[in-house]
Amino acid sequence: MPYTAPLDQIALTLRTVARLGDLAATGAFPNFDADLVEPILEEAAKLARDVVAPVNAQGHKTGAKLGPDGVTAAPGLKNVYAAYREGGWMGLPFPEQWGGQGLPRVLSLAVMEMLQGANASFALCPMLSLGAVEALLAHGDEAQKTTYLPKLVSGEWTGTMNLTEPQAGSDVGALKTKAIPNGDGSYAITGQKIFITWGDHDVAENIVHLVLARLPDAPEGSRGVSLFLAPKFLVNADGSLGERNKVRCIGLEHKMGIHASPTCVMEYDGATGWLIGGPNKGLAAMFTMMNSARVNVGTQGVGIAEAARQAALAYARDRKQGAAPGVDSAAPIILHPDIRRMLMNMEASVQAARSICYACAAAADLAEHASDPAVRAAAKLREDLLTPMAKAWSTDKAVEVSNTAVQIHGGMGFMGETDAAQYYLDARITPIYEGTNGIQAIDLVGRKLSMGGGGAMSAMLDDIRATAREARNANHPHLVAIADRLDAAAAALGEATTWMAAAMKDKRETALGGATAYARLAGNVVGGYFLTRSAIDELKTDGPLRDRAIGLARFYAEETLSRAPGSVAGISSAAEALTDTADLILG
Amino acid sequence: MPYTAPLDQIALTLRTVARLGDLAATGAFPNFDADLVEPILEEAAKLARDVVAPVNAQGHKTGAKLGPDGVTAAPGLKNVYAAYREGGWMGLPFPEQWGGQGLPRVLSLAVMEMLQGANASFALCPMLSLGAVEALLAHGDEAQKTTYLPKLVSGEWTGTMNLTEPQAGSDVGALKTKAIPNGDGSYAITGQKIFITWGDHDVAENIVHLVLARLPDAPEGSRGVSLFLAPKFLVNADGSLGERNKVRCIGLEHKMGIHASPTCVMEYDGATGWLIGGPNKGLAAMFTMMNSARVNVGTQGVGIAEAARQAALAYARDRKQGAAPGVDSAAPIILHPDIRRMLMNMEASVQAARSICYACAAAADLAEHASDPAVRAAAKLREDLLTPMAKAWSTDKAVEVSNTAVQIHGGMGFMGETDAAQYYLDARITPIYEGTNGIQAIDLVGRKLSMGGGGAMSAMLDDIRATAREARNANHPHLVAIADRLDAAAAALGEATTWMAAAMKDKRETALGGATAYARLAGNVVGGYFLTRSAIDELKTDGPLRDRAIGLARFYAEETLSRAPGSVAGISSAAEALTDTADLILG
User: Which pLDDT value is given to residue B482?
Assistant: First the structure.
């Protein structure tokens, strides 16, 4: 069954969680018109279903190929990319000055979710370009912007991030690639980079590599890292393409999944590049790309999970096995309560993850554009707090949901050629790249909890409690029950936060041992908060979407929020036990 | 790093959980001698490490091949099987009358764990033979036993289970394969079977297929299913091999993992077979094989999880990234608390799963051999209760632990050719075959809770509470804390059991919606019970194994048992919410 964008759920999330109305009220998006949202989403859904999804399975089988002239994309992807470029999708969230449409980035994220669901390998290509554009917008000089931004924003060229080296994965500061001044303002870059997504391909005429490297006199570690731009083809003064730069793909990784995304070993052999931002300022520029990439990877998790959910639902409706309540034999397996439980968990998980990701992107929009500086500051705190949750919680759910989809398919799910298997394999990279989920948890407890005097999480908890009150006052029996669960869950998250904040000061190593369990609780509670918000907002409306929102919030409250109060000791006491016992047991 | 059998942990589990001493005291194992255990385990460990494990990675890459003459096993497996056969390992748990060694089956299970950890694809071959032998021992007539058992018990021939057909997976009663009497006591079997593990190969000279099929006048559904024996080569009266039977492999599945295990489509084209057990008694015979297979698949989960744990531990000690507490830069990642948490969870999960599987097999030994009928009956209840937990909980943990191993490997873990990736892919089938884990949960709440008037679970809870008392009285601070967690967890399991037992009577559909969550809680608590048992028993001893057992029990108590009291609503209330909301949301 082909992927079909869940337009109702996406629109509901944009309305009730991202609160597009608030973004429009900033006045920062003159092109934005509420009536445009539906047609944009519908066009994107068509692209995803009719163009992008149909080549997904073939790409999984064939993969990209490396030949003497570089990488050839998997069958069909050149046409897919052309359709994406011609639709002007790349420019959606970028300034009109550079050829973009100046729309909220959360709208771009909704489009990205559809591409990810349709074909995660393909969607990585524009996803990396997005990061490159953000980095150039934030750190490029005018000449660099003028030369590269129009081509990247139009999608004529694509962008990459070149960070990782064999000895420098999570620890970017350990990288060894060198950049030597050529004396003409350019640099000669030499070194090897690994795991470079869409590092080479034939779907666009040029590739703009953003490369981390060290200047000759750079300090050690991450403070001595600079960012360079090195295009595949050098660009002449008139904007035409010049000679081939000395950077090439010398190998493709054989991976578990995302086979149609070429993961390149890149060799820089004195490649010509230009410094972006100041010397030794590479880390700041990298974080610009990474923050954009983190919510995008979270959304990749949402897209894959949504696709897996659809495949499982279709299979469960179609596959007949045994008797079920009300049917004597050959009942579709969706009638079995245990299958229904799995499907409902998938529904609730996907919608909660979608909400966290969209809320994160909407906060980024507000943080940049709100007219009131206090609103901007609060939104920035919210964006920073939600970024590690968007990345880690959503991608953990992607693995979990796609795992459940395999399970629902039974033996067929284990066959390498089913869609369910592909989603499971594609999903597995998402908790790893753009900062492992462990690193996200450390970021959450190590930076985000103390940021703004601890204000980010306390503001979040205030919002959750206010929403619980609103739910209780909504005069609807299910919402009252949900309010009870949400209140208790907020109290648990508050208690865990208090412990964590104190432990980070007094016994940092112990605290870090509880980071992942804390991050999971935080995501669980915040996810339930957003589901409750949607249910409250939809209460005013009528019809199946409303009942669906209430039903999902209710199921999630009983299934997931109900466990929150009992999970605090699994953070704090388990971290203490870890500190005491691990030396002996791990050696 | 090659797989190395965890001899200390295996021996500890046999001693403190399987309680080999109790088995010896039955007098049913005259060949059993406590001094023999260590040399047997050490020999098996050598076989696993030196012979079986070294071809595991190659088998993953190459897989089995189907040619005109049938299936050729992956490189090296013929030699591996020869070593296994020559070592006499196949006969370990079977009666001396048929060439076996008459030792407890739990000892055979410990050996099986090592084979599974070393090479899960290979270990499936003897694992299927074990099930065939059990079925013949229980249901074959004397002539059948005399003809086939000596060859199967010696390992000269292998056995298979032929159950599944495209329309008949979990619902075996839907199968269509026909068996027509030939008039000479034999039957002509015609039909197609899929997903047949090691259905054809070249590592042994003959293959004994046990096949479910329907007699001409059979009733519909599972009551009309009979079991037949159809060898690959017919056996002459003198025991020599005769002509090729009309059964052959016509296709191999392309799977996500266990590539070196040939998963065959088998075509029966009037193949000659003989009825095992009575007409239409196939289901009972099938359950003999399945019950043996379920604890074996659980143990496959333990073996793969153990191998993944070892790979992750070795990688975490070797891989250097960034600063860690006490080290400024390039610290091995094992020093990071979040990595330590993952490794400790793996340790505790593997040991708890091992304990559940071994306890299940030991109960089966006692149920068959104890001299006191009351002991036999109680042991049978325990075996029946633990079987679905051994299968489902251990295999869920196999997926979880191998998933964590991939995560610890970071980007390298996603590369298709690393050991961690192979374990992850191999593990994924284990929650599916031999009855999906959803079916195990339904078996637990639907049959096992009501069995013996509900006595199986109440006896289990009594044992758990008695162990908590023993821990509290042990006069050791950590054991007192563990006792508190175990008591609270037992109370939670008791509460959930009361709800579940009542709901299964009053509102079966709702109850079944809580089955998986209930089974997970039961496994969590029973796993903690066994870890506590080991800690108490080891208290009398001295040295690192004792401290390790206490440390593991303590970490698990805080990390996992502490969550039990908060998870009851996630069973009962979530099942109610499921019943109320799923119709609307799933359509």
Answer: 98
CA distance A256 to A402: 14
**Residue at A90 is within a domain:** no
pLDDT tens for B418-477 read 999 999 999 999 999 999 999 999 999 999 999 989 999 999 999 999 999 999 999 899
User: Which positions ≥6 away from A485 have C-beta within 8 Å?
Assistant: A528, A557, A558, A561, A562
Structure tokens at B569: 């609503």
Residues of B in contact with A254 (CB under 8 A): 415-417
- Give the residue from B110, B119, B105 showing the smallest Cα distance to B7: B110
User: Which ipTM did the prediction report?
Assistant: 0.98
pTM, entire model: 0.98
Read off the DSSP letter of residue A410: G
Residue partners of A443: CB distance under 8 A and separation at least 6: A387, A388, A435
Q: With helix as H, strand as E and coil as C, how does B115-149 read?
A: HHHHCHHHHHHHHHHHHHHHHHHHHCCHHHHHHHH
CA–centroid distance for B293 within its chain: 6
- Residue A291: the pLDDT is 83
What is each CA distance from A504 to A411, A508, B174, in whole angstroms? 46, 4, 59
With CB atoms and an 8 Å threshold, state whether A573 touches B586: no
Compute the distance between CA of residue B28 and CA of residue B581 in angstroms, rounded to an integer. Answer: 54
Number of other CB atoms surrounding residue B494 within 10 Å? 17
**pLDDT for A199-258, tens place per residue?**
999 999 999 999 999 999 999 999 999 999 999 999 999 999 999 999 999 999 999 999
Q: Is residue B544 part of a domain?
A: yes
Task: Determine, yes or no, domain membership for B69.
Answer: no
Cβ atoms of B488 and B565 closer than 8 Å: yes
Rounded-to-5 percentages of helix, strand, coil across chain A: 65, 15, 25
B508 contacts A326 by C-beta, under 8 angstroms? no
**Residue B153 is encoded by which pair of tokens?**
């018990």
Q: Where are the alpha helices (DSSP H) in B18-141?
A: 20-25, 34-46, 56-62, 77-86, 105-118, 120-139
Mark yes or no for CB contact B510/A337 under 8 Å.
yes
The C-alpha atoms of residue B54 and residue B60 are separated, in whole angstroms, by: 12
Q: Is A577 in contact with B564 (Cβ distance < 8 A)?
A: no
Q: Residue B541: what residue type?
A: T
Residue B34 Cα distances to A172, A228, B27, angstroms: 55, 68, 13
Q: Please report which helix (H) or strand (E) contains residue A557, including its range.
A: helix A544-559
Q: Count of domains in chain A?
A: 1
| Partner residue facing A577 (CB), from B554, B578, B579 | B554
In-domain check, residue A206: no
pLDDT, residue A218, reads: 96
Of the candidates B434, B495, B538, B558, the residue annotated as catalytic is B434
Q: Using a CB-CB distance cutoff of 8 angstroms, which residues of chain A are in contact with residue B436?
A: 407, 410
Burial tier of A243 (Cβ tally within 10 Å: 0-12, 13-18, 19+)? exposed
* List of residues 6+ apart from A35 with CB closer than 8 A: none
B63: left (phi over 0), alpha (psi -120 to 50) or beta: left
How confident is the model over B325-380, as pLDDT tens digits? 788 888 999 999 999 999 999 999 999 999 999 999 999 999 999 999 999 999 99
Q: What is the domain extent for residue A492?
A: 453-587
Q: State whether residue A250 is helix, strand or coil.
A: strand
Angstroms from B307 CA to nearest CA on chain A: 15
Instruction: Find, among A444, A445, A311, the residue nearest to A390 by Cα.
Output: A444
